[in-house]
Amino acid sequence: MTHNAHLVDRGSSVAGPRVSEYTISSVCLRGYDFAQALEVAKRLGFDSLDLVGLRGLCEHVPVNGSTADLRAAAEVFRRSGLRGASVNADPGSFDGFDDAEDVRRRIDGLLGFLGEAELPLLVLPCGEKTAAPPADPQISRMADALNGVAASARAAGVRLAVEAPYFGRPIHSLERAEQLLAALDPAIELAYDVSHVEAADESVVAGWDRFADRIGIVHLRDAASGDVRRVIGAGRVDFAAFLHQVRASDFSGDVVLELETQNSPYASKEDEVMAAALYLGAIEQKEREIVR
């Protein structure tokens, strides 16, 4: 699936972290207000941003805000000069835990925000967070609602993606992600987060191969069994094998550093972000040398 092409120039050399090869999630900078986060992202060398509206965690996009709040945030973003890759938001779930009309109202506000900010992609989760995967994940119920959202997104000129698998939510496995995708409008894309796949003890490469034609955006973070909050390089994700598959395909969507981690050894989130870019850049540089 091809969208915003900004992948690696395989003929160039690397002297340090090439952060512009990646998109930064604003959740990495949730300690700053929105305007400050945008300035920090630019100072670190990023030219594109995944804007986050996750209730109670990072509300750079005011998912519960008024129309005026959303318009003000859109204006702040437009003035930044950054390219907007996506909005990653949690407006609530469609599997019975939230009032569906309230969820749709928030989504309609988000679609208005994406239009105001000239952003191409809305990423939504699938179902409410749970301590254990439910026996009945309510796939038909969620799919019917998401297909309705897809129609509204299409009318607004916005693409829609669902984040699946998602460890700790009903669509927690590759199998359930496949079941969900089969019930969704084919235009709905997949946001593929390697940490959620690894945390469920499944193969990030096998998942890529299985869903590559539906993947519209990639999220990178490290993980181990049952733990999606690892610093990149401190978990089990085989980034070399995964990035090889990504770069060998025709994928030209955004690859996002979504570093919402725990027990980070770094003095600041900025240090962690740059260390992740350096770690991944070294992997990619080695791949380039092999290709040559």
TrEMBL record:
Keyword Isomerase tagged: yes
Cross-referenced Pfam families: AP_endonuc_2
Keyword Isomerase among record annotations: yes
Alphabetical UniProt keywords: Carbohydrate metabolism, Isomerase
Gene Ontology MF, one: isomerase activity
Record domain Xylose isomerase-like TIM barrel: where: 39-268
Gene3D superfamilies (UniProt xref): Divalent-metal-dependent TIM barrel enzymes
Identification of the protein by name: Sugar phosphate isomerase/epimerase family protein
Gene source species: Microbacterium alkaliflavum
